[in-house]
TrEMBL record:
<dbReference type="InterPro" id="IPR050626">
    <property type="entry name" value="Peptidase_M16"/>
</dbReference>
<dbReference type="InterPro" id="IPR007863">
    <property type="entry name" value="Peptidase_M16_C"/>
</dbReference>
<feature type="region of interest" description="Disordered">
    <location>
        <begin position="275"/>
        <end position="301"/>
    </location>
</feature>
<keyword id="KW-0645">Protease</keyword>
<dbReference type="GO" id="GO:0008237">
    <property type="term" value="F:metallopeptidase activity"/>
</dbReference>
<keyword id="KW-0482">Metalloprotease</keyword>
<feature type="domain" description="Peptidase M16 N-terminal">
    <location>
        <begin position="73"/>
        <end position="215"/>
    </location>
</feature>
<keyword id="KW-0732">Signal</keyword>
<feature type="domain" description="Peptidase M16 C-terminal">
    <location>
        <begin position="727"/>
        <end position="890"/>
    </location>
</feature>
<keyword id="KW-0862">Zinc</keyword>
<comment type="similarity">
    <text>Belongs to the peptidase M16 family.</text>
</comment>
<dbReference type="Pfam" id="PF05193">
    <property type="entry name" value="Peptidase_M16_C"/>
</dbReference>
<dbReference type="GO" id="GO:0046872">
    <property type="term" value="F:metal ion binding"/>
</dbReference>
<dbReference type="InterPro" id="IPR011765">
    <property type="entry name" value="Pept_M16_N"/>
</dbReference>
<dbReference type="Pfam" id="PF00675">
    <property type="entry name" value="Peptidase_M16"/>
</dbReference>
<protein>
    <submittedName>
        <fullName>Peptidase, M16 family protein</fullName>
    </submittedName>
</protein>
<feature type="domain" description="Peptidase M16 C-terminal">
    <location>
        <begin position="231"/>
        <end position="416"/>
    </location>
</feature>
Length: 980
């Protein structure tokens, strides 16, 4: 086992590589302690009124002007600093005429401020190594606006500059008529792109469930009327009212001393003073039942929403007023009891659905929503138009939970699950990413509660075990379903299926408790399961050729990579690659691919069906993710060293003795059929459904099966297709993390080593490689969403395989250059699209199939403008090499992205997948960082000529049903139908 000290562990994985950056020099911190930093003998501002143990990793402070902060040292990933600036102003703080202002102001802060010229925020952060949209971003919610920066390679100069820029953005944005005129179209584009059926349902659900409260009519995106009517004067007034030090909290977690962060906060925000009178928090309101409401709790507002292209969904909520709490240990014990109660009900609801119930899924969830309501939500999806039976079935399961206490066996099961999850957080706390820690503390501020260390959470949970009794859980369950008013929303594709009165009456009907979903208490042990076969022998072992990774070949031909390391304490990552992937499906069997992604794992292994798989995982950390790639299938899981053998057993048993339960297939088929029509409700949905199919030259294997194709599938056909696929092709098991090497080898011998030799992949499957359509004409798809929504795609083929892996990485630089220019043209200049982008794909397991794809959502009349802009940018990249600054804005964020990602096992697992069969993948690692971050303008120009202008791009336009494709711009495409 490799052992590193905590200080250097996150860097250890990169140490053998020549491109490892030298660690930052130690900072001279022989300075006075920041005056605003609270001492160990003081109660931090976040913990006032609480007896929850203070998480001493955080240091808290408050400036004389009222600004509060929390800072901590955190080296994950190394050299990164995560900064969050939270302003206590969201859409609920807006006046009627200001709806959307909090979000619009967020945009304006990025457009121009004291130290950032107009339009320079994105390129400036890129030059500092931060990727726009992921490393630099902001979020406006009903209760706050949070500005986020994850700054890589954060040396003194970068930190100083970042704080200077952020202080200018928050304190002194440039709010003038020109900037407002530039940003309003971008916000309207964002609003348009999130519109359609899903937005209508979300708005209607919010209006109904929160009737009478501000939340009902205040979406953060605002209204078209208030946005188009926004003026610089009105927005400046909103900024003065809410962007004030007393309304601001700064949270920082990063690879430097906490005192250093505190000094920077004092330096750049200490002299900040608000102008004029500050805002007064409005009354968010309480949920109140109408006078005529009846029942217990009284049934209030109900609503039936008819959306022809959306699947059925029913939500009802028991609403209670939200109030600030005393965040004590007792209060948190109550929250944990509530979580256990919900887990018990949800497990029963799932069991009822699995057993052939009237609904596809159902879930109970308590939530404190936007400091407006404390609510218990019940949501489910009826399988048919008989929503009343589904409602009665769901309520029957809940009624049983309200009438009778759970069994000790049920409680033990949920307690074991919670304990494993909380213990895992403790084990992994040393490598918790700073960004996640900062986000968690910001969330605590938002809900007006404290934050606790993982050890405190585990201690509190274990300390309350004796009080987790059937009677106590029954009482907490009953409280979850008590409230001031019950409201409901039913979404259906069919007119006349229900009305508001019918929904109301159904909710007031007496309920018969249904105890059939209570789970049996029989225990299942891995020790009692049949062996997969005779344990196999290790035929060969040796170094993989990188780090201390060992490669092993078992006697049956199965190969493995083993890398014991403690870079991620308590965690073991496992991946199993096998078989043929999409190549294995004949065109006539294509529908079974998607069904397999949903149902293959849940159809069981050996003697274990769905319920048994859940039960046997109790008290363990096991996973079972499944994915289909171009040329390989993959199982994946996060587990622990003590559970590794059991995890390997489950994976190997799926290959060696699969089970074929019928119900998971039936459920997957119903889910796929119900979801199909919903894809047509927006341009983005239609592209999610059809783009892979179109870019692979209409290869049926990549089509989303429609209801008619699904109707022809059967459980027998499912097994006939998948059973041979599980037996075919090579297998590679990859195990990275904190585990014992010898124990892992023994477990491999007993599991994968016990499988019979693998069957070869048929020659017909080997030959099935994806194609690419001819460019020239435009394929037109028609969606059934809003008339102002459209999307456009233009794509070019690239390549695949390991031989040209360096070129694929250089293509990533080219596509980022392309993406920056497209963003500048379509968003910043034209205001036509919120987030246009260009992406590159290059499959490594096959020699073809890669693409370069540019995409944007926009108005229908702007589709030709997009095609013209994309083709013009492509032509310019081929004709003229980019500038050095333009290249640096791409290569520096990519360099930092690679360095940060390479501190985790998942990164290396992805890079080295397949390396036991293809040693070239090991060699390709040597040039990894250089390939992504070092190039020349001339190399980019040559790649653009080869891939972007050597043949016409393939164009797809998605426009509203009944409209014609607009003409104009440089592109004058002829139109062809979608052919689906």
């Amino acid at each position: 086992m490799i052992r590193f000290s905590r200080a250097v562990r996150p860097l250890a994985l990169l140490a053998p590589l020549a491109f490892l950056a030298a660690p930052l020099p130690a900072q001279d911190i022989a300075q006075e302690r920041p005056a605003s930093l609270q001492g160990e003998d003081e109660t931090p501002w976040l913990y006032e009124g609480s007896n929850v143990p203070v998480d001493r990793e955080w240091k808290f402070g408050e400036l004389p002007n009222g600004l509060r902060y929390a800072v901590r040292e955190n080296g994950v990933p190394p050299q990164q600093v995560s900064i969050r600036i939270r302003v206590d102003a969201g859409s609920l703080h807006e006046r009627d005429e200001e709806r959307g202002f909090a979000h619009l102001l967020e945009h304006l802060l990025f457009r121009e401020s004291k130290y950032l010229a107009a339009g320079q925020a994105i390129p400036t952060w890129q030059r500092l190594g931060a990727t726009f949209g992921s490393d630099t971003n902001a979020v406006t919610s009903p209760t706050s606006t949070v500005y986020k920066l994850d700054l890589p390679a954060a040396d003194d100069a970068k930190l100083e500059e970042s704080f200077r820029l952020l202080s200018g953005m928050i304190r002194e944005p440039v709010i003038n008529a020109a900037n407002v005129a530039a940003e309003v179209p971008i916000v309207l584009a964002e609003k348009r792109e999130s519109g359609g059926a899903a937005r209508r349902v979300a708005d209607a659900r919010r209006e109904t469930l929160f009737a009478g409260q501000r939340l009902a009519v205040r979406s953060p995106i605002g209204t078209e009327e208030t946005l188009t009517g926004a003026t610089a004067q009105a927005l400046s007034a909103f900024h003065r009212r809410w962007y004030r030090p007393e309304e601001t909290v700064i949270v920082i977690a990063g690879d430097a001393e906490a005192e250093r962060f505190a000094r920077l906060i004092e330096q750049y925000f200490g002299d900040w003073q608000g102008e004029g009178a500050g805002g007064e928090d409005p009354d968010f309101g309480d949920p109140v039942a109408p006078d005529e409401a009846m029942g217990d709790p009284p049934v209030g507002e109900t609503r039936v929403i008819v959306e022809p292209d959306l699947p059925r969904n029913y939500t009802y909520a028991i609403m209670r007023p939200w109030r600030p709490v005393e965040d004590t240990i007792v209060y948190n014990e109550g929250l944990l009891m509530d979580a256990l109660a919900q887990a018990l009900i949800n497990r029963r609801l799932e069991a009822r659905a699995r057993g052939g119930g009237s609904y596809l899924y159902a879930q109970v969830q308590q939530d404190d929503v936007s400091r407006s309501s404390d609510a218990t939500f019940v949501s489910f999806a009826p399988l048919s138009g008989d929503w009343a039976t589904a409602l009665a079935d769901v309520r029957g399961v809940i009624a049983d939970a309200l009438a009778s206490p759970p069994t000790e066996e049920e409680i033990e099961r949920e307690v074991a699950e919670f304990d494993v999850a909380f213990k895992a957080l403790v084990d992994e706390s040393e490598v918790a990413p700073g960004a996640r820690l900062a986000d968690n503390l910001v969330e605590a501020v938002d809900i007006r509660e404290t934050t606790a260390s993982p050890q405190t959470v585990l201690d509190v949970f274990r300390g309350m075990r004796e009080r987790i009794t059937p009677e106590a859980l029954l009482a907490r369950t009953q409280a979850l379903f008590e409230g001031d008013v019950l409201r409901s929303v039913y979404v259906t594709p069919t007119i006349g299926e229900a009305d508001n009165a019918a929904i109301r009456v159904a909710l007031m009907k007496p309920v018969t408790a249904d105890n059939s979903a209570r789970l049996a208490a029989s225990d299942i042990s891995f020790d009692d399961l049949p062996p997969i076969g005779e344990p196999g022998l290790v035929a060969a072992s040796g170094p993989l050729g990188l780090f201390e990774i060992e490669q092993i070949e078992l006697a049956n031909g199965i190969r493995a990579q083993l890398w014991p390391n403690d870079a991620e304490p308590g965690r073991v990552s496992v991946k199993v690659r096998f078989g043929s992937g999409y190549r294995g499906f004949a065109p006539e069997d294509a529908a079974y691919a998607q069904l397999g992604e949903i149902a293959l794992v849940s159809s069981g292994v050996g003697e274990l069906g769905q319920e048994e798989l859940d039960r046997i995982a109790t008290g363990r950390k096991l996973g079972f993710d499944f994915a289909i790639e171009d040329a390989v299938f993959e199982f994946a899981a996060q587990t622990r060293g003590q559970d590794l053998e059991d995890q390997l057993y489950l994976f190997a048993a799926k290959l060696g003795m699969p089970r074929w339960d019928v119900n998971p297939f039936i459920r997957a088929k119903a889910a796929a059929s119900l979801a199909y029509e919903s894809y047509s409700t927006s341009p983005g949905g239609l592209l999610n459904r059809d783009l892979d199919f179109l870019l692979r030259d209409r290869d049926p294997r990549f089509a989303t099966p429609d209801p008619s194709a699904l109707e022809t599938t059967t459980p027998e056909g499912f097994r006939a297709v998948w059973e041979p696929l599980l037996r075919q092709g090579p297998v590679e098991v990859i195990i990275y993390g904190e585990f014992d090497r010898d124990e892992a080898v023994a477990a491999l011998q007993k599991t994968f080593g016990a499988l019979p030799p693998r069957e070869p992949i048929p020659a017909a499957a080997e030959a099935r490689l994806p194609g690419f359509p001819q460019g020239g004409d435009t394929t037109v798809l028609e969606h059934r969403g809003d008339d102002n929504q459209a999307a456009a795609v233009i794509a070019w083929p690239s390549g695949g395989g390991v031989d040209d892996i360096t070129e694929s990485r250089q293509l990533e630089i080219l596509t980022q250059l392309f993406s920056n220019r497209l963003l500048e043209e379509m968003r910043e200049r034209a205001g036509a699209s919120y987030a246009p982008q260009v992406v590159a794909e290059w499959p490594v397991d096959i020699q073809t199939g890669g693409t370069i794809t540019a995409f944007a959502q926009l108005k229908p009349e702007d589709v030709p403008t997009f095609f013209a802009a994309a083709e013009s940018i492509a032509a310019d990249l081929a004709a003229n090499p980019p500038s050095a600054d333009e290249l640096n804005r791409v290569t520096e964020p990519l360099r930092q992205l690679i360095r940060r990602a390479s501190t985790g096992n998942q990164f290396w697992m992805f890079q080295l997948a397949g390396a036991t069969y293809d040693p070239r993948r090991v060699l390709a690692i040597r040039s990894l960082l250089a390939d992504y971050s070092q190039t020349t303008p001339e190399a980019m120009q040559a790649l653009a000529r080869r891939y972007l202008t050597s043949r016409p791009g393939y164009r797809v336009a998605v426009i509203p049903q009944g409209q014609e494709l607009a003409r104009g711009g440089a592109a004058q495409p002829s139109v062809t139908p979608s052919g689906r």
